Structures are given as structure tokens and as C-alpha cells.
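*Target chain*
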Amino acid sequence: LGILTGLIPPVSLPTWLLSFTTNSGSALLNLRLLRLLKFQRVLTDKNTYANFQMALGMRRIGNVRPYQLQIARTVTSIFTLVSVSTGLIYTAEHEVNPDLPDYFTALYFGLTTLTTVGFGDITPMTSQGRLVVGGTIL
């Protein structure tokens, strides 16, 4: 590991990503929601899911079909993407953008952005907000 130390350049995170004021919270805290994606490991096949149920002490709930596991993986991915993008846009914009006064307005903005409807009633004002929206769209 010491050999790789010189190969990786030091990375400095943007200050808005590290803001720990009591009003705004931290964008890094929003990124912790990405841990939900680890749950998809359990949803890969029926045997893995059955072992997960057994490890938790749950009784088996009938026969789980592969399409049900696919739906669960899709819902988990969408929920995680919406939650993380909403938290990041709220953290980046709520102090300077009067159109984003609370988390639920940011959720509305995130959903309209992800579905590419984009009504235009709320637009990001900062470059950080535009970066978050661009990353969310991609």
C-alpha cells in the first residue's frame, strides 16, 4: 500500500461538501445513504436471500421469485438516487435559493429533475447546485 502512496494525487473536497454548520448539515452525511446499495448483495438470487432471512431469524415467507428480487433492487436503487440527490441539492442551495426553503421542496425539485419534466419553477442558483443537478441527470 505504501508503494501506491505517490501515485494517487491528494484530493481536496469542496467546502460546501464539508459544511458542518447547524443550519445546513453536511453533504457527506447525505452520501451515507449510498450504504443502502449494499443491500442489493442480498437480493442477487433466491439462495442468498434465504440465507439473509435465516441469519436475521425471519421465517421464510413462501417462495420468492427472481422478478421480485429484481423489483426490490430497482426500488432500492431509485430510492437511494432520489434521497442522495435531494440531500445534496438541499445542502448546496437552501441557504442562497429562496425557492428551496425545506427538504420537501428539494425532494419535489429532485423528482422533477430525475424524471426530466423540469417545470422550471425552481432552478439552481449556485455552481455547486448546477453540478449536483448535472450529476443527477447523468
Notes: The radius of gyration is 19 Å. The helical segments are 27-31, 46-56, 66-93, 103-114, 127-137. Residues 1-8, 18-24 have pLDDT under 50 and may be disordered. Residues 27 and 88 are 6 Å apart (CA to CA).
